[in-house]
Design goal:
The two termini are 36 Å apart. The longest helix is centred in the last third of the chain and has 55 residues. The protein has 25 helices and two strands. It has a two-stranded antiparallel sheet. By secondary structure, it is mainly α.
Length: 651
Amino acid sequence: MSRVATVGSGLATGRAEPRTGSLARFRAPLLATLLAIPNAHWIIQIEKVRDGPYPSTISLFMNALLWLVVLLVGNQVLGRWLPRWKLSPAELLLIYTMLSITTAMAGMDFTPVLVQMIAHPTYYAREGVVDPQVLQHLPSQLINTDYEALRAYFVGNSTLYRWEHIRAWLTPVAYWMVFIALLWWVMLCVVSLVRRAWTESERLAFPLVELPLQMVEPSGRLWRAPLMWAGFAVAGGINLLNGLHYWFPTIPEIPVKHQDLAPFMPDRPWNAVQWLPISFYPFVIGIGYLMPLDLVFSCWFFYLFWKGQLVLSAAWGWDITPEFPYIREQGIGAYLGIGLFLLFARHGVVRQVLTQLRSGTESQVAEAIPPRIAVWGLLAGIAGLVIFLVLFGMRFSVALAAIALYLVIALVITRIRAEFGAPVHDQHFSGPDHILTRLTGMQGYTGRELAMINFFYWFNRAYRSHPMPFALEGLKMAQATRTPLPTFAVWMLWAGLWGALLAFWAYLHNAYRYGAGAEFFQGQLFGMEAYNRLTNWLTLPQEAHRGAQTATVFGALVAGGLMWLRGQFYGFPLHPIGFAISGSWAMNLVWFPLALAWGIKLAIIRYGGLPLYRRLLPFFLGLILGEAVVGMGWSLIGVAANIPAYSFWGQ
């Protein structure tokens, strides 16, 4: 069922995209570049200074959707008064893609974590919180060593725009921008290499591009659909009422955020579930409706499967072993197993890349980055990342292994988004830093190597705001509007670099004003986590964990077994990706609305077939839009007026 292809075919007509050449006039990239500035400030304000909402932890960024709505409204005004200035669908989608990428760079699990890691050690070593011995293992170029500048950063009531403050940050930011640029370039090369296989050969569904594509369709069919406005009214009405309740408690609310059921199971072994929340987030139901039935089923089924493991372990006394049954490591094994399959299967990435390299010049020109350039660019980018790490104290083999592991995980996350559009994909504490230290032990590493492995924490703590999937989704939308792929690629490259710089600026601007250790809600937690971990590594280095190793292998075997079963039995309902992602923290928040979406979609398809599914689709798109416009609208009011406001997603 390729619903996105249907939408894309409508946009790809001459009527839908009369002026693809208009992108060359730079107005869309310029507008996106300018909008990224307030967007970065907005994201840092609500996700770090304030207590939510947290749009960058959702796979479909609600702030980017709100920007797209604003642009569409402005487009209608331009179409009436200045029709020559009206933005085309391709331009609107390019702006949406660029804003999504800049949001990812400023999001919960990317550049802001790095800022905390740059700031934390010097200041808190002086304050007696961090062991001063840790500093001797940290490269001085990669952290801020100016205590006075850091004191203003943590305490606040100051400003970034003093030369002594800017100077203190120039060196570490410059070094890390080199690393980010190399990392982002590598991601774009990988995306360009897999694009043809995933979008044209396998024809993956790309559920998460369905809504933006329909929003910009020239006919305006979505905006004229009564069912869309009905869904918008449901989700928007809930958020409007709850937002008013936040300010005026006498107004009733409709509870949709997560409520924990675990207190109702106080006795052993049922209390081993630890946390069992249910929620009714409208936008999750909307996203779940877009997902294939087998993955929606797998998400909530395997979530309960993981909870069942905990209960059975307690019932049989196996939980006497700390962390048993190692759910995180089982998930890591599944990710690695899926990643190896994507790379080396008969129709895997490696074979597809080799096929592209043997193809003629015509097919290469059509790509975002010509395959030969992408391959050599990928190798050069990986080499640059490895050299960066080696120069600061890592052995070549360790650096190469860490980068390779990261790229495998990034590839799987991108595939998850392209094929199934899962609303969350966080996978906390599962990156190369965890794999290398927990599964291989720490005795073989020097103190400097452990410090450099610890730096992987900033882009591997979790993968909620991962930028790589947005690049592939951007190319999919470019293809749907018949826009030259290199045009999107160039501006996506710029968006990543500009977005990272803006993330540094927005975080530091707010930190010097409010104090990262004072009025920030989440100004130093991640830095504290990272350096507490490094201190433990240096003082009590652990051996390889046999139980975690076994669980990782088990997870890979289960994922492989599920892939084999799906190949042997048509319609087998369990998917390995559901097994991989359902043990993560964020699945706690969305498993129940996904189960509701599965039940609704199953009934619709069983009793009404594909025609009824398509007829009702606007209602579920409206659920997402209503949450985006009203839910994110409350956060805009809060930031603009500098007052607390309702958070539709998060705490």
